[in-house]
Fold Beta-hexosaminidase bacterial type N-terminal domain-containing protein.
Amino acid sequence: MIAAALLIAGLAPVGCVAGEGVAADLLATRLNERGARVVRGRCRDMLVVAPPAQAEAIVGRGWRSPGVAGEGYAVRRVGRVTVVIAAGTRGLVYGAGWVLRAWRGGGVAVAGPVDEAPVYAGRLTQIGYRAKNNSYDAWTLPMFRRRIEDLALWGASGVQVIAPVSDDAAASPLFPAPPIETLRGIGNAAHALGIDFALYYPLLGDYGKPGETAAEMARLRDLLGALPQIDAFYMPGGDPGHTAPPLLFGVAGEAARMVRATNPAARVWLSTQGFDAAGYEAFYAELARQPAWLTGVFVGPQSRDPVPVQLRRIPARYPIELYPDIGHTMHAQFPVDRWHPAFALTEGREPIDPRPLAMTAIFRRFMALTSGFTTYSEGVNDDANQFLWMRLAWEPQAEPRSLMADYGRSVIGDVRAGEAAFALERNWVGDPAANASIDATLALVDRMQGSGWQADSLRYRAVYDALVRARLGEARRRDAAARAALLRADGAVAIAAYAVPDGAEAKALRKRLFGLAARPHAGARLQLSVPLYGASSVERGANLDRVDVTLDDRHWLIPRIRAATDRAALVRLGDHARAAEGALYDDLGDPDHEPHLVRGAGLAADPPGFASAIDGIADRTPDDGWRMSEISYAETLYDAPLTLRYTGLDPRRRYRLVATWAGEDYALSMRLVANDTIELHPYRPRTRNPETVEVAIPAAATAGGTLTLGWTRPPGMGGSGRGHQIAETWLIPEHLTGAQR
């Protein structure tokens, strides 16, 4: 009766898994984890996972094998038998993954013939067994095997490990085993599944020094001798490292010969990361020589030239791979668009960050120009994004909702987890205090089933978002009460406004958050706190340690209230926007309070922000004595100007600009120009952080009733492109004289 019901419902029942090899074993194990109660061997309701010849021997008469090649697989239904075939282990693992995604309540949904192959050749994720990683430095080898199996089942072509020597500490106090032992085990696990084992090898030395290249090659030789066969070798030009292109190509050529001594088919990739404009030209000049040892170029964070530019400049023989940062929200390759500073201050750069719509848009914008990717990741905070990228590489035009439904159903155990990923992405749109969808998201995850760490990670994020929403609302009420008192010149009442604590809702959410944080740590060693879970720093995913960060201006304001010498000074403190002076004020970095900022293309159309203004925050908090408005800033990257535009100005008036230069701890010079032609000041560095800079605006600049201000930094610079940051501006009209009136 059960089998008949399954057939009527369009499901193929499975009583056993036949076929020899790792894919059949893995599939049987995973089906039993889902309560399927299958056995290995033959039966009437059989699922065969095998190469064509073996499948034919098992199924017998009536079976005609479809053609399969490369990484592809096929699924067919023959009577009561479901057959998954592929040419080799890798394809069979992919076919097993299809079965798991198609599994519905005891059977496989087989609507018709299935023939699948990947669209992109390179589909890797990076594993960093190092101290700064937010998870992996505490993982055991069985945990890595499980992770690699999960990603392979979703279509990964390989895993890339970071070499033991990188821009990090030599060891982590959380390591359960030495790095070489763990990396060796990761490589063996990948090869057992038929997928690639790749090595990311930064260059950290000074290769202009005699003997340094030879020493580096000796270190590489020792590493290669300790690891399984390397299938692909990735050497970044920078981030980390600072090797000029002529030296880079020399060292990389030596490394390529060494890698191919054990695997002649190994692929060798270089990147342009960190180069300035001159460095790019030198890199392109080296490529023009068309070295035969080079496979291609990968494009990652801190790449000054966008992918389309590099594609035009790189000889056609060299394919491009993308090295996308899928785990960071700010100070990153793909920052969250118009991210509110309250989220940035609390949840930070490396939070639980499912971004299905943004990731799909990034994939579709860039991947058509490339041959594949290796996702840059610092742990499991970006788990949903990792799985999404793997499936998009097979189905680039698939609806992300369908792919995330598969993630929810087959990875977490509840299709609602896929919807939760979209809901969490919506939570980050706009002002959290005004975003009622945050409450709806929390209700959704509260209904969601699933007891694993991935489900608990989504719950943690939903609770954190709700806590930020509650705390920000309370912080604003305190600030508003303090401002109102100051405008009455009542400093004592203003100070008392900050004595009001957070309410019961925030306290309950905080307590719940701490309880939830233990679960992803238990299941995936996700280090959400430095003191509790051993994270390397707050910036490395440990946002539980930012849960109590101040979101109001008390630490900036109260000392100034106490220092005020008269009532007028108190009133001025209450009018930070200088409305009484008629100022046009921008709190740059707060997306809802920067009316004069020229956004450019916007991050939806320009995900890296090469032609867009980006909202960000400094590496400070209000607890350091900074105003919220000083912490948030707007910036542009590389040579793009940071632009403000004003209209409706009074041509009779003179104006002056007051700007707060604040942001990350860069000391880069900036130049300010009005209307693209009038220099208001030449390049000058920020002398302190924050710094107030005042500039008189010439009458000619506002004679037409409009004004455009553009800050630029010296052209041609490389690195991250950041540091071009302004936190606040006031355009203040001077008083009209009697004659002017």
Notes: Residues 412 and 420 are 11 Å apart (CA to CA). The longest helix spans residues 453-487. The domain at 2-116 is CATH 3.30.379.10 (Chitobiase; domain 2). The chain has three domains: 2-116, 122-414, 577-733.
